[in-house]
Amino acid sequence: MSEMDDTFKDNVLEVENLNVEFSTYGGVVQAVRGVNFSVGRGETLAIVGESGCGKSVTVQSIMGLLPTPPGKITAGEARLRGNNILNLPAKEANKFRGVEIGMIFQDPMTSLNPTMTIGDQISETLMVHRHLSYSDASAKAVALLEKTRIPEAKKRAAQYPFEFSGGMLQRAMIAQSLACNPSVLIADEPTTALDVTIQAQILELMSELQKTEDMSIILITHDLAVVAKMADRVAVMYAGQIVEMGTVDEIFYESAHPYTMGLKEAMPSNRKDRAKKLTPIEGSPPDLFSPPAGCGYFARCPHAMALCETKQSEEFILTSSSSHFSKCWLQHPEAPKTDGLFQVGDDHAG
Amino acid sequence: MLAYTLKRLLAGIVTVWFIATATFTAMHMVPGDPLMNDKAVSAEIRANLERKYGLDKSAPEQYVIFMKNMLSGDFGISFTQQNRQVNDIIRDHFPVSATLGIMAIFFATIGGVLWGALTALYRNRLPDIIIMFLVILGISVPSFVFAALGQLLLVNINSLFGASIIPVAGWGTLSHMLMPSMVLGLGTMALLTRLMRSSMLEIVNEDYIRTARAKGLSPSRIFFRHQLRNAILPVITVLGPQIAAITTGGFVVELVFAIPGLGRYFVQAVQQLDYTVIMGTTVFYGAFLVLMVILVDILYGFIDPRVRLS
Question: Which of A160, A219, A250, B190 could form a disulfide with B305 if both were Cys (CB 3.0 to 4.6 A apart)?
């Protein structure tokens, strides 16, 4: 574990105190409330959470893709190699978008222009950012398609999105996002719209390319199986905040937040000793029009205490290397011991 | 693409045949005949004339003769205009109507796409509100009102300069054509503006526009390369029927601006039951419109690969 920490010391991307609001007819929704994280070089950070927890909004804010209005970044910084990239005008943002940070999306079927060939859509990026000629860019586009294992790349480059299958389109999306050798790839639920066998292929391709291209990945997902397969570190998001963050082993084997526990119990398992009914998390997330004063998970938490309703927990650090924290009052030294939950002072499993 | 085009052409020929047959049937079911207009012809002269024009034959026989002649490109001689071939009438007057129609379509399309895109860019701001108000006027006010207002405007301009800078009516030079074609295209332009606006607004929220932004493309490149081409598809779809509306709707504008187009003959012929001219102009217009719709479909195929390849 300590080896890993050294590799990730030089952070490519750092997000600090990110706050995002949406103005709607019903009022102002505070979608992201003070999110902090960083991504090291070559590292995969997974951001997990249920629908509406703010995980997509977080990465879209970084990329400047939030529709403004109604969206608004009210506070915070995102630093790419030390330079703030939040709230930049389009012209400035386009110096890093597609160049330093590539992005792929949930539904590859609708994420590509239906009236433009795949090859042209990839070469467009190269022509704009690398100032290549059309023929050079087209040749490079074919090479990129080959890199993502698309058979008969040359023929496929001349085809339109509707002639591709979903999995092939996601490969083409990956090829497009890699065109300018970005140092960070943001994957916003890249496999949610694909069937399970294709999912595995796409994830494999991503981790392979991550090694050969030496890039960091921010993986947005709600699928814990995908997290286990891909992530080095995991941030668990709930109601616009990161409630627990740690290495993938820490999150899975030393879960220190009741919400993380809940997510795990809601996941099917084929292990004999865990063969039981799935336990859904009862209730629904808090109303972010008026965020609760205390913990967002209070109403659904089986271990909630009186304090949780009125006061937000600080981030309790659980490891000496400070890689693992939980935003839960149960980690307070005076809190009661809770069965199943990893708490400050517990022995590490591995 | 070739097979698609041929298939469309074949269907077009069947359509034109259907138009010809339907017109022929309807025309013969109207009481009276072309000779009714000539006053006080005796029964003898009438019989002679009927023999001369073949009106003494039964309707099916006349139909066969008409179809045969039509296939060889001959629509016959007008009943009401002395010794004038229907082909000559079409040849003399259709180019005028076609020029007017094409210019109107040109104005309507360019204007519609431009205003539509503009209103979408300025959604809910002043330019959008002003243009959308004018659009409602353009759709709801009939063309003869605009024709009269257009003439009034020209009169005012001319009297302001004290000389006839832009002719108020008539036909011949480009300056004659400007106002009538704009008036004729106005309704269509308004319709296309609305269509283009909603189509643009829909596409702004498409996933592939977000992808284009994530790729780091400039707003103008996204607008021209990604939005416009996709937004224009529904506009092209309605262009076919709109060409039909403009070419047949040209009659009123032709009348107000004293333009020697085909529309006048078309209407006159129906009033006077001039069989040959009715058939000639209807079949010709029909064939023209069918051809336009096919051309639009082919154009659609060029812009949208999904149509071309499936």
Answer: A160
> What ipTM describes this predicted complex?
0.86
The predicted pLDDT at position A319 comes to 77
In this structure, are residues A182 and A215 in contact, taking their beta carbons and an 8 Å threshold?
yes
Cis amide bond preceding A70, omega within 30: yes
> What's the token pair of residue A130?
């690398």
Judged by phi (left if over 0) then psi (alpha if -120 to 50, else beta), residue A74 lies in alpha
At B201-225, the pLDDT tens digits run: 989 888 999 999 999 999 889 988 8
CB contact under 8 A, B216 and A96: yes
pTM of structure? 0.77
pLDDT per position as a tens digit, B277-307: 888 888 888 888 888 888 888 888 788 877 7
Residue of B nearest to A104 (CA): B211
Residue of B213, B303, B306 with shortest CB distance to A65: B213
Residues 6+ apart with CB under 8 A from B67: B20
The token pair at A12 is: 């490519």
> Would you call A13 helix, strand, or coil by DSSP?
strand
**What residues of A are in the B interface, CB distance below 8 Å?**
63-65, 90-91, 93-99, 102-103, 105, 107, 110-116, 124-125, 128-129, 160, 162-163, 173, 176-177
Q: How far is CA A316 from CA A232, A313, A341, B172, in A?
A: 20, 8, 14, 87
Give the separation between CA B34 and CA B2, rounded to whole angstroms: 44
Q: Are A157 and A142 in contact (CB under 8 A)?
A: yes
